[in-house]
Specification:
The structure holds 2 protein chains of 2 kinds. Chain A is α+β, with helices and mostly antiparallel strands. Chain A contains 1 helix and 3 strands. Chain A has one domain: Ubiquitin-like (UB roll), CATH 3.10.20.520. In chain A, strands 2-1-3 form a 3-stranded antiparallel beta sheet, with helices on one face. Chain A is flat and about 40 Å long. Chain B is 68% helix and 0% strand. The longest helix of chain B is centred in the middle third of the chain and has 52 residues. The N and C termini of chain B lie far apart (36 Å). By secondary structure, chain B is mainly alpha-helical. Chain B is built from 7 helices and no strands. In chain B, α1 runs antiparallel to α4 and α4 runs antiparallel to α6. At the A-B interface, β2 and α1 of A face α2 and α5 of B.
Chain lengths: 75, 231
């Protein structure tokens, strides 16, 4: 049976060239940053991106009414 | 052994290590934990087999017969690192096996990056770049696995590392230094001391960089080796 590891979602952003805006293109789930980078590089390889970056979902700060809690869902 | 033969043997050991590594990744891809692992394992396979073909082409320009290299040899003529000989028994074992094979081959390509022949130097740079990326992926997994199964990880490192050390021992001192640098990251994570390299026995074949023929179970999974398939 496969062991279950603690994994985290990472959101993937990319742009094709410097004129483009950085856009959200998807997400990956991985046990750490190094693995997430490899997954992002190999899954979202439909373009020769000029920039590709990942952000841990846990680093995303929700903007809400004061005192209100919101759980950010992976996209 | 003259310098050209020695150099060609090094290139062949590198090419065959990539050949076997690529095929192991294909055979083990479904052990991946997610789509991301499948994609990454197949990427390692693709780039490894690409490196094999490119290195065979370099050997062809150095006078070797390409069709013999690709489809004319049997298991006793394959020059891959023997770290890959035993089938990985767990995901941790697979990640460590790939890491060691990549670290050893990358240590050699880093040296070849300074080769006077521009084509060899550029090809080596490309292979090193890919290997470093693969190693980062494996090390990322190893860091996670240590948290859950440190005993398994340590046992696998101690089982496989001595034969990798023997493989780099046959190369120039800079290659071994480069390899040891890569391995320190792995040993540091595991709080392990550097083990002693396996002995070079009387069966050791210095041209192939191994003592015995490829095990038949491993040769079985190496694809595209039969001349009939090329027709």
């Amino acid at each position: 049976m496969k062991q279950s590891y603690k994994e985290e979602f990472y959101e993937i952003f990319a742009r094709k060239n410097s004129d483009d805006t950085l856009q959200h293109i998807g997400s990956v789930k991985a046990p750490g940053q190094e693995v997430a980078i490899a997954h992002a590089w190999n899954i979202y390889d439909e373009h020769a991106w000029s920039e590709l970056c990942i952000v841990p979902l846990s680093a995303v700060v929700a903007v809400t009414e004061q005192g209100k809690q919101v759980k950010i869902k992976p996209i | 052994m003259d310098q050209t033969t020695h150099f060609n043997n090094s290139l062949l050991r590198l090419a065959d290590t990539k050949l076997v590594l690529g095929n192991i990744c294909i055979a083990t891809v479904f052990n991946g934990r997610s789509l991301g692992d499948f994609a990454t394992m197949l990427a390692i396979a693709g780039t490894s087999l690409g490196a094999t073909r490119a290195l065979y082409r370099l050997l062809e320009t150095a006078g070797e017969d390409y069709s013999w290299l690709e489809r004319g040899r049997d298991a006793s003529q394959i020059a891959s690192i023997d770290v890959l000989d035993t089938a990985p028994e767990s995901w941790a074992d697979l990640m460590i096996t790939i890491y060691l094979a990549e670290a050893a081959s990358c240590a050699l390509t880093r040296k070849l990056e300074k080769h006077a022949d521009r084509i060899i130097a550029n090809q080596s740079k490309m292979i090193s770049k890919e290997s470093i990326f693969h190693m980062a992926y494996c090390l990322g997994w190893i860091k996670t696995l240590i948290e859950y199964e440190s005993d398994t990880v340590q046992a696998v490192v101690l089982k496989r590392l001595p034969s990798a050390l023997r493989w780099v021992d046959q190369c120039e001192p800079q290659v071994k230094e480069q390899f040891v640098d890569s391995i320190n990251a792995l040993l540091g994570l595991n709080h392990l001391e550097m083990p002693v390299a396996l002995d070079i026995t009387s069966q050791w074949n210095s041209a192939l960089g191994r003592a015995h023929a490829l095990p038949s179970s491993l040769w079985e999974i190496v694809r595209f080796k039969d001349p009939e398939l090329a027709r």
